[in-house]
Design goal:
With 94 residues, this protein is mainly alpha-helical. Helices cover 66% and strands 6% of the residues. A two-stranded antiparallel sheet has the order 1-2.
Length: 94
């Protein structure tokens, strides 16, 4: 899974405060979401969430990661939209 895909899963967990709900929104099982977040935390060397039986909450590290992920994913969306605007336009070559 790409880093941007991991970020999408992470942000969905943040917004839903639930691995189960994030999984439903993304078409994944709660177990798959949990494992992905665990691998992400291992790769980053930091816990991103405090997990309870009822919900998940961001740690300080999680807040920092979240605030960096949002503009990155927005920039990716903007880049893809910018390229999509060229579809159907003539291409000029030298």
């Amino acid at each position: 899974m790409s880093i941007s895909s991991e970020m999408v899963v992470f942000i969905t967990v943040v917004k839903t405060e639930s691995f189960s709900e994030a999984g439903r929104e993304l078409g994944m099982t709660a177990s798959a979401v949990s494992k992905l977040i665990g691998r992400l935390e291992d790769r980053l060397g930091a816990k991103l969430f405090v997990r309870t039986t009822r919900r998940v909450m961001l740690t300080d590290e999680g807040h920092t990661y979240f605030h960096h992920c949002v503009p990155i994913l927005s920039a990716i969306d903007n880049a893809e939209l910018a390229v999509a605007e060229f579809q159907g336009e003539p291409s000029w070559s030298a």
